[in-house]
Amino acid sequence: MVNLKVDIIVTQGTPAAQAAKNATSTIPIVMATTGDAGGSGLVPSLARPGGNVTGLSFLGTDVIGKRLELFKEAVPTITRVAFLANPGNSTEMISLKNLQSIAPKLGLTVKLLGMKGPEDFEKAFAAVVQDRINAAMVPPNSSYIPYRQQIIPLAAKHRLPVMYGWRDFPEAGGLMSYGVSLADLFRRSATYVH
């Protein structure tokens, strides 16, 4: 895109925003969605982003504690939670750190089980069962949404309650979610582009 000399770059997700920022310091970049724009180093602050990057953040790393709290409230018997996340995603690793600091206050432990893409789903859910973990969380990573019809049946097969980051999962039969509307973020990002 930089070689094409586009007028603006619109990104979805933290990795895409980081790639765009690394590619150019002159073309304006609008983040339609990021989990933690400040914590991942994309902008110094949302109030004063500076540079050529601006846009929206759904504050996924800040909301993760509330997500865990609501999960425990809905399923009080959970004690060990697998965080099925991509270890290469900086926002998800910040979320893991936050989860691990909040979990003991709720009587929970949280363990990372890597899940980058569809090739890892079956293995991750099998590891949950093998490690005697009784619940799981899938972070708000939009790259998982197209695979919800694979992920939800795996949770059912293993009789595992799962808290998701996007409402697309409960709408497709998953247990529950807590988070923002992706559609709304994209609509709002048009204002930044304009």
Protein architecture, described:
The protein is an alpha/beta fold. The chain is built from seven helices and eight strands, in the order βαββαβαβαβαβαβα. The strands form two sheets. The chain has a five-stranded parallel beta sheet with strand order 5-4-6-7-8, with helices on both faces. α1 links the parallel β1 and β2. α2 crosses α3 and α4 packs parallel to α5.
Question: Can you give keywords for this protein?
Answer:
194 residues, alpha/beta, five-stranded parallel sheet, three-stranded parallel sheet, 40% helix, elongated
How is the topology of this model organized?
Layout: E1 9-12, H1 14-23, E2 29-33, E3 53-55, H2 60-74, E4 80-85, H3 90-102, E5 109-114, H4 118-130, E6 135-138, H5 148-157, E7 162-164, H6 168-171, E8 176-177, H7 182-193
Helix pairs in contact: 2-3, 4-5
Short description:
The protein has 194 residues and is an alpha/beta fold. It is 40% helix and 17% strand. The chain has helices spanning 14-23, 60-74, 90-102, 118-130, 148-157, 168-171, 182-193, and strands spanning 9-12, 29-33, 53-55, 80-85, 109-114, 135-138, 162-164, 176-177.
